[in-house]
Amino acid sequence: MPVFILLTVWTALRILGRNRLRAGLTMLGIVIGVGAVIAMVSIGEGAKAAVAQRVASMGTNVILIFPGATTAGGVRSGQGGAVTLTVADSLDLKKRISLLHETGWGKRDVMQIVNGNKNWNGTVNGVSPSYLTIRDWSFTSGGPFTQLDMDTAASVALVGQTVVDNLFDAGEEPVGSVIRIKNVPFRVVGVLAPKGQSSQGTDQDDVIFIPFTTAERKVVGTQFLGSVGAVFASTERPEDLASAVEQIREVLRLRHRLQPGQDDDFVIRTQVEIGKIQEGASETLTMMLFTIASISLLVGGIGIMNILLVSVTERTKEIGVRMAVGAKRRHILAQFLIEAITMSVVGGCLGIVLGVVGARVTSMIADWPTIISANTVATAFAFSVAVGLFFGLYPANKAARLNPIDALRYE
Amino acid sequence: MLIRCEDLWKIYRLGDVEVHALRGLNLSIEQGEFVAIMGASGSGKSSLMNILGCLDQPTKGRYWLNDVDVAALRSDALAEIRNKQIGFVFQNFNLIPRTSALENAQLPLFYRGMPLREQRVLAMEALSRVGLNGREGHYPTQLSGGQQQRVAIARALVAGPSLLLADEPTGNLDTESSREIMTILDGLNKEQGMTIILVTHETDIAAYADREIVIKDGRVLLDRNTRADLRPSSSEV
């Protein structure tokens, strides 16, 4: 039997070699199918990994608390409509919840920033010094502002890379220079290390940090002293996030004197859940791409079946001769199955090359991250073999069921 | 006794019409005989050949080949009999296209699962036996009709069968090639004692055989020994 299989594979290759154009066109379906599966899944996997990386850059152990909606006379404001969170809330959370490693607070506003003859419209964040620790910001030059700056409402600023690119000439050192925010002069004390895009797609480096007290009193203003735009908290370990969130909710409800059944007047978000939504979205995308690619593989399989049926008809007489000299039904079955599988295997191999090259080119041209895993390649290949086997079965069976005498007489 | 047929019937159904190709045919052939089967077209001689060659089953009746009741066998067993005991030579050669003479001659051994080297050796011997030395690598299209038929004979005898069935082997050949082919068949019969059954409607081709059987309307009309100086045979019919 091994001799038979080896020789049949050899025969199949020769037959395919003879009808090069026909075999090539037939295999093209499989080539495109396998190539598409690999390229699409690689792009999908790459997107997923990029999301995971962005989530990590936001901090996997960070909790964000925003003011919630209020209801006044049946009219509900949007999220953040209420001014319910305060500096005192933040400090109290730190004191009461041992799981929390650090808490901070901040408020933000978009305003015009000027340096010499350049200006830029950026987000100015007034934050507590602890915020910088929570979000794990580091510096390319200079350093953070201090508790003393906070206490004295000093006019000092930290600038992100995007702001630096837009306000300073190349090679100019931002640290030590004075910029004006809403016409108030600020001394730049640090340049933040770039973090890239956030998981929401915003530029995390288009940012300016100033002490919260300075923001409250000199630039952003406030409804009442101590109201904040957001409270931030971090836990020691990412696993504690869920229980910390529950405890924060309890403490805040108590502090805000909310009755049971009343809605929270704040919203708690974690990066993990934001990331999960995005990961879910990219997973849906991957599944969709995979489905589309699978359909082209299916079409490729139908192509194989079609060409084999033609081949069986064309070679009916040959089948008759083979049967006359002693080929059993299973020999004929094996011959056509092996031809089908040979086509799909050769097509699959070419498809792998096409898919890998396609994924590489995509990440080069479109600058999308792609991940080609051995798993994807193996799955696509196995799929193509299965397609060959499945779609070869019907024509092969048709050939094997021929009556020797009818096959011999066929003209 | 190599072949024994008793009351063979073959009925084809073409739509609503029943065609009786064989109507209770009886026949016996000994090992080593050279038999010519003759008859007009539609006489049933092709149906008889198909059954004798185990390519087809009779509708009714029994057929013993080497004392095995062939009519009771299934397709795989029939394939094995065709592979080991029967060699076929067809009118239109029936070589596998775009496949070398050597590979065509190897074909029966291929389905026997024989190691490739042994296949080669035996096929070379068979080709040499029919005088095709040096043409092993030629494709059918590169060979003349007579040469193609010789490849077909090599393929038929490579497996060392006890029975060779030749269905109008010279039907598509010129006189010269026909004579060559018949000389080879005659040699196989006389020198190696191979049983040969030849279907033909040419009397000069039938003259190579030792026994002549004429079929008409699905029955044996005449069965005589041509070597016994036209003495009517004591027919077993």
Low-confidence stretches of chain B: 233-237
Q: Please estimate the helix content of chain A.
A: 55-70%
Oligomer: heterodimer
Proportion in β-strands of chain A = 15-25%
The proportion of strand residues of chain B reads: 25-35%
Q: How many strands appear in the DSSP assignment of chain A?
A: 12
* Chain pair forming the biggest interface: A-B, 23 and 29 residues
Report the average pLDDT across residues of chain A: 86
Note the overall shape of chain A. Answer: elongated
Structure description:
Helix content of chain A is 56%, strand content 18%. Chain A contains 13 helices and 12 strands. In chain A, the strands form 2 sheets. Chain A has a 6-stranded mixed barrel. In chain A, a hairpin with a 2-residue loop joins strand 2 and strand 3 (75-76). In chain A, helix 9 (271-314) packs parallel to helix 12 (374-400). The relative contact order of chain A is 0.19. Chain B is of the alpha/beta class and 237 residues long. Helices cover 33% and strands 27% of the residues of chain B. Chain B has helices at 45-52, 75-85, 101-110, 116-129, 145-157, 175-192, 203-206, and strands at 3-14, 17-29, 34-38, 60-65, 68-69, 86-89, 163-167, 195-199, 211-216, 219-225. A 6-stranded mixed β-sheet of chain B has the order 6-7-8-3-9-10, with helices on both faces. In chain B, strands 2-1-4-5 form a 4-stranded antiparallel β-sheet, with helices on one face. Residues 233-237 of chain B have low confidence and may be disordered. The interface between A and B is medium-sized, with 23 and 29 residues.
Describe the structure using short key phrases.
heterodimer; A: 411 residues; alpha+beta; 6-stranded mixed beta barrel; B: 6-stranded mixed sheet; 10 strands
List the helices and strands and how they pair.
The complex is a heterodimer of chains A (411) and B (237).
Chain A: H1 2-18, H2 20-58, E1 62-67, E2 71-72, E3 75-76, H3 87-96, E4 100-115, E5 118-127, H4 129-134, E6 139-142, H5 147-151, E7 156-159, H6 161-167, E8 178-181, E9 184-192, E10 207-211, H7 212-219, E11 230-235, H8 241-255, E12 266-270, H9 271-314, H10 316-324, H11 329-365, H12 374-400, H13 404-409
Parallel strand pairs in A: 5-10, 7-9
Antiparallel strand pairs in A: 1-11, 1-12, 2-3, 4-5, 4-8, 4-11, 6-9, 7-10, 8-9
Chain B: E1 3-14, E2 17-29, E3 34-38, H1 45-52, E4 60-65, E5 68-69, H2 75-85, E6 86-89, H3 101-110, H4 116-129, H5 145-157, E7 163-167, H6 175-192, E8 195-199, H7 203-206, E9 211-216, E10 219-225
Parallel strand pairs in B: 3-8, 3-9, 6-7, 7-8
Antiparallel strand pairs in B: 1-2, 1-4, 4-5, 9-10
